[in-house]
Fold this sequence. Notes:
This protein is of the alpha+beta class. It has a single domain (2-181), classed as 3-Layer(aba) Sandwich (Aminopeptidase), CATH 3.40.630.30. Helices cover 33% and strands 29% of the residues. The strands form 2 sheets. A 7-stranded mixed β-sheet has the order 1-2-3-6-7-9-8. It has a two-stranded antiparallel ribbon with strand order 4-5. The longest helix is centred in the first third of the chain and has 13 residues, at 10-22. The chain is globular and about 45 Å long.
Amino acid sequence: MLIAKLVSSDNELVQIAALSRDNLVSNITEETQQQEGFVSWPYTLEVLQRLHDLIPSVIVKEGDLVAGYALVLTREAAGIYPPLADALAHFEKIHYKGRALSDFRMYVMGQICVHPDYRGKGVFQLLYQFHQQQFSPAYDLLVTEISTRNVRSLRAHLKTGFSVVDTVYDEEDEWQVVVWDWSLSPRQV
């Protein structure tokens, strides 16, 4: 049985680090990238442990296996994970509902990944449903960036309730900044 929960053990962090590494864009074929999607940034076990000390991330498990994860990055995590600092600086320039995105009670979903054996089985939806249940009382928005080449991920995020609010270009890629505004969606996905 698939169960969504917050990370609570070092073994779960080890599995997240392995799943992130195994699905990193530089570690998989172009064909796999197009068919299955990919993750863009590496998360080492050390970084995951430091992020976990701030706030635990969301996972879905079946037994002892992490079937998927969705990392929680609050603003305080920018000192631990440098790409977040760049994203937050850009969010200050994006306007949403007449205000800077950074003026909202928001956090960043740092990365989402589903184990290959569990794709198409509802893990993605369970991860985000738990995010909303756990964090919507304290936050108005969940924000993330998705490579425009990662069509599968972008499509899944839009289906969940995210909307594109900006496009960012950097030396690595072109990114869609997407927002899930919990004031616009029901409390259950």
